[in-house]
Design brief:
single chain, 148 residues, alpha+beta, 6-stranded antiparallel beta barrel, 6 strands, globular
Amino acid sequence: MREIDTEKLQNDAEARKAFNDNVVQEFRANGGMVGGPFAGDIVLLTMTGAKSGHPRLSPLAYFTIDGKMLIVGSFGGAPRDPAWVQNLRAKPEAHVEVGTESYDVIARELPRGERDALFDKLVELAPVFGDYQAKTSRVIPLFELQKA
């Protein structure tokens, strides 16, 4: 498996866009499946840009823990949240593509206590997120995506 250059993706908007565009194309061409460094459970999340008001599409890993569909605002442990976090905080209504399904969701940012309990379970499933949390002083947010 090829490593993801998280620092380049955090700091180079063009590289991030190209990477995400490739993931989206592969996802849609293969019935919701992708390989390489992004293999696993992927959701295509379409939300409204907080500043622009335009649709924004982000391919994200998701995890099902305690019956909740969760996405993680890790941004590779960067000191700032990824843009999609600000978008969902401003307007939590979104649309997802999961596998071959597509439906509307409401994103709910988990409050600190609930987040902490589920983050520990997340790290058990994907230890890299513990590494990302250790790299940053911000609390990496978790969002639950609930069918609308």
